[in-house]
Every structure is written in C-alpha cells, then in structure tokens.
UniProtKB/TrEMBL annotation, chain A:
This is NarG-like domain-containing protein. It comes from the Bacteria. It comes from Pseudodesulfovibrio sediminis. It is found in: Cell membrane. NCBIfam families: sulf_resp_HmcE. Residues 73-166 form the NarG-like domain.
UniProtKB/TrEMBL annotation, chain B:
The lineage of its organism: Bacteria, Pseudomonadati, Thermodesulfobacteriota, Desulfovibrionia, Desulfovibrionales. Residues 338-424 form the Cysteine-rich domain. Coiled coil: none annotated. It comes from the Bacteria. The keyword Electron transport applies. Gene3D superfamilies: Alpha-helical ferredoxin. It comes from Pseudodesulfovibrio sediminis. This is Cysteine-rich domain-containing protein. InterPro entries: 4Fe4S_Fe-S-bd, 4Fe4S_Fe_S_CS, Cys_rich_dom, Helical_ferredxn, HmcF. Residues 60-135 form the 4Fe-4S ferredoxin-type domain. Keywords: 4Fe-4S, Electron transport, Iron, Iron-sulfur, Metal-binding, Transport. PROSITE patterns: 4FE4S_FER_1 (PS00198).
Amino acid sequence: MYDFLTGPMLWVTFLVSFGGLLVRAVMYVRGLNWQLDRVAYRPNMKYGLRGGIISILAFIIPFRARLWRVRPGFTLIFFAFHIGLLVTPILLEAHNVMLKEAFGISLPTLPTGVADVLAWTCLVGGLFMVLRRIAFPEVRIITTFYDYLLIAITVAPFITGLIARYEMGDYNFWLMAHIITGEIWLLSLPFTKLSHAILFFMSRMQLGMDYGIKRGGMKGSDMAW
Amino acid sequence: MPEGQFCNKTPITTDEQLKATLNDKGGKQYYEEMNHLDVDSEKLWGAIQKTMKSRIKTWLEICAHCGLCAESCFLYQVNGRVPEQVPSYKIQATLGQIVKKKGKVDNEFMQMCMETAWSKCTCCNRCGMYCPHGIDMGIMFGYLRGLLYSQGFVPWELKIGSGMHRVYRAQMDVTMEDWVETCEWMAEETEEEWPGLEIPVDKVGADIMYTCNAREPKHYPEDIAEAAILFHVAGENWTVPSEGWEQTSLSMFAGDWECCKDNVQNVYDAIERLKPKRATGTECGHAHRATVIEGPYWTGRPDGQPPVPFLHYVEWLAEALRTGKLKIDPSKRIKEPVTLQDSCNYVRNQGLKDITREIISYIVEPGYFVEMAPTKEHNYCCGGGGGFNGIGKYREQRNMALRKKMDQILDTGCKLVIAPCHNCWDAIRDLEEEYEIGIRWSFLKPLVIKMLDVPEHLLPKDE
C-alpha cells in the first residue's frame, strides 16, 4: 500500500495536479479576448507586462497593497497560512528524503522546530479562516459548504502529518492518512477553486495589464494598488 | 413570450417609439408590463456562452468568498453594512446564479438582478482594487447589464436613454441642427464680450476638435460658450463637428453595446472627416470613458486607441496652463478651502489623478487645497454614477448613496467642491439639495475664466 501510494499513485497525482494546473493556465490565456475584455494586450505588451507585474507584486508582498494595510490582522493570518501551506511541504526533511531516494537530489530542509511551527501556523490560520466565516456577516453570507470543504481538504494533510509526526496512535495508519489526504489535496488543485494556486497569478496579471494598458499605465500613472 | 408595448426586448429605434415611451410618465405602464415579460433562457445562455470567456468565468469560479471586497464598496458602507451589499454577494447572487442555472431563470429573478445591477452597483470599479484575486465586480456588473438589457429588464429611463442615442445620436433630443444653432447662438452672445471669438463648425485640419455632452446644448449652453472663451484666449485653432459632437453614452450605462459602438463610431467618423491633430471632450467622466477608454474596443480598433490622441478636458486645461497659453492672475486665485472630486471614470479608469492636481496648483492659492480622504484612485464614487443619478425608480437608494460623498466633503471642511465631471457635478448638486450642507460646486471652466489674466488685444476695444 505504502509503495503504491508513494510510487505510481504519487506519479499520477503529480502529473494530474501540475499538468492540470498548467492546462488551466494555458486555457486561461487562450480564453482572453482583447475585444471582449477591452484590453489591447498584444500591441501594448510592454505596458501590460509592467502593469501585470506591479499588480502581482502588490498582492504577494505583505502590506504592499492598500488592502493589506487597511486589514493588518487578516493580512498576518492570510500570509502565515499561505506561507505555511507552501513552504512546509516543499522544505520538509521527510519529504526531501523521498526526493533524494527517487532522484538523488534534495532541497534545503527546514529544522524540525521551524517545520513544526509552520505546520501549526497553517492549522491555526485555517481555524481562523473558518471562524471568520462564521463570525462576520459579510463573509457568512457568501460562504458555502464548498468553502468549508476546501479548507478541510487543505488542512487535512497538516492534521494527519502532525499526528504522525508526534506519533500519536498508530503511526502507520496516520502516515497512510497523511499521504492520502496530501494526494487528495494535490488532485483537487486543478479541479476546484484551489486552482487559484495558478489562476490567482493569471487573474492578477490580467487586471494589472488592464490597468497598465488602458486604465492609466499609458498615461504614465501606475495604479496605487 | 409576451412583450409589452414599452417593456420588451427590442431597442427603441424610432422617434415615435421614443416619444410614446417618454409619455408613459415615470414608466408606470413600462414597469407593469415588465411583470409579464418572459425570459428567453436559450438566448440568454447562448449570449453567455459566446461572450463569457476566461476573465469573467475565472472570476466567478475563483472568488474565495473572503469578503474583503465588502468594505471597498461605498454602497455597503452607507447601507448599514448589510451583507446583501457585499460586492461578491451581489454578483454571485445575480450573474453567478444565471450562469449556474444556464440561463434558466424567471421574471422575478431578472427583476431582482435589474435592481441589483442598477441600484446596488455604480460600476465604479473600486472593489477591483481591493480584491486579492483581481476580481473587478464593476466590470462584471457592466456585463450583467448587457445581458439584462438584451432581455428587456432595464430601468425605464435607460431604455429611453439608449433610445435617444439610437434615434438622435445624443443622450437628449438635440438634433444636428439644434447643435449647430446653439453653437452659432453662443458665439454671437459671447462675441460681445470677447471680440473675435468664434465657434468654428466643421473646420478641416484644426489642431483640436472639441466634443461635449448633450446636456450642454440642451440645458446649459453657457458651458459651450465657456469652452469657446478658453480656446479663444489660449489661441487654439479648434473646431466642433456638426455631426459626431456628442460623446456621452447612456447606452453604456444601459448595457446596449450595439448602440455604444454606433455612438463612438459617429465621433470617430467626425475625426476622420475633419482630420484634427487632436481631440478633446468636455468635463465629463463617463463620456470620456465611452469615447476614449472603452470606445476604441467597441469599434474594433486593435491598438485600443482613438483615431487621434483624445484628451480629457483636464488634460487640455493643464497643458494650456503649463505652457502659458492660459495665464492665471495670481491675485484672483481661489483663497478659500477647496476640495476636488476625483471622477471614477477618468481617474480610476485612466489614471488622470496628478493632472487635476496640477491644475489645482495653478488656480488655488497654496495652502487652501484640501484632499478628500481617501483620494485619487481610492476615492469613492460621487454616489450617482453608472446611471444611478437618472433613474427615478431608485431615487431613494441614490439619495442614500450620496451620503458617502457628503461625509467625505464635510470631513474636508470645504464649502467649495471642484467637480470636473457632469455626473459628479449633478450628484453633488443633488446632495446639497437633499441634505443642505451649505456647499457650492463648480466645473473648472467658469472658475478659470474668472481668474484669467487676459492679454490686452483680446479685450473689447472701447473699454
């Protein structure tokens, strides 16, 4: 079972997940239409790229966009959650051991303490995301079951991973659960709203190009995001 | 599918229809007929499949339901922060549902969509700046308005408005003859005080072609006279076209995209005919957006630019002041606290934020200019944008919307507001009428004329 999940199944997962995200990115660009979107992408590519990059940077750097500055509490939780979510699995020692076994290469790894803190941050961040969905009327009204499900899918590998890491209960069971939930998460990426992993960049880039080309960029004024 | 005499899926294209619809006071029969209007689900879904591509599809799909757009919306703020005013909710509950149900929605649902699209969103695009995913709900509401218009679910005034544009190619029943006569009349009137002043119609090869808002010839022709005075004093070689002089687009507010294209093409045809070096329009925001920012796309210009460089009035004015074509007498500068309304349609939508402040630096004594908070591209809609000002059915909601601008103005402590946009100007006038906070408001033209340092040779001889 372990061999299957970390062997063929993992390959399929990676293929579907990363391939799927790539397909979504390509489909996004192909579905852009200068006349319907009312943005002259091609003839003004330079302005567009400039606006797009400014727009992406404003939102991936904490406190850069005005939005992040007017909502500092949310911003902290949001970034902690996403950093934990992305950095932990990539730089975790255990994962890199597998990488080394398979390809003979490995990335720098996080000290165990740091990895623990990041994993817990992600969990606590996820919890806050759930709580604010319940607590704030402006978030509650747009929240659906699907939103909770996605948070569950996202944090499940962290919960199972931490249980396995602290060796609570049956280690083998929790390890399997961790691998399966991790694979479910990866497989969900291209097919659900989690596709924002790639589509965030596409959408941000597009709006940035819109502003960079027609909504001020060509008049020499960058949008103060 | 029962369609009414006035409320139906067919645009107004004749003067007769137009007058008949206008005579239905307040749209009484129109809205009654709307209650029986069928939804053509197949056509609706067909339109969505044809026109909803990456951008809007992705926006609907990846909205994380985080609610961060709530506070960005002034309508959410002034309406007691009710969750029904959260931008994400507004669009998901309307366009989102139409897409989800593949167009199979009923009359009641479409009427709810109409109310949401025209009374809960002014398409100010502010939410787009505050969404981490870059989702611009103003754009989506514009799209939704198009779908609603094609199904006949559009407020009475905007059905008439786009009809006006279709019949008269102007937002009001100003014909080409009316327009040319108004120009002649204004030139005659103004020439007494400004010898040599002309309003040249259809002059080929001028440096600047000037277009305006049909409200000016219809209701305040002095605005045309003021434009003429400033061009005259600046020594501009300018002209107005007899046809293609109107640059507003109520059809853009209505979602009548076919009509939008026709209007802007009319202006571009005038440019092609008169071959000016540049063009400029009046102090209007949505007109500029229609003619200069969105218009090139409606007419299919792949570079996204009008046929010649087309300036907003503030750009021309700043240039004239900067280059000394117009000189300000420093003793006549504004010496009272004054604030500036940044129009969504050329500030957030075309970045013209610094140029207006440059004008301020010439006409306001240093120390007297007070910024609104927030300001520039973060400024709020005047409260009456996107057609909101003109819709009687939603007057109450519009009056509520004005409160945000009222608070912003009160916070500056200024009694004078400069509003270089027709729509903002109207909204601020209405807010004074409604709430009586004791403010005055002005376009730039009359202010600048009062403080001009006029060269001797342009003054009347016998004085």
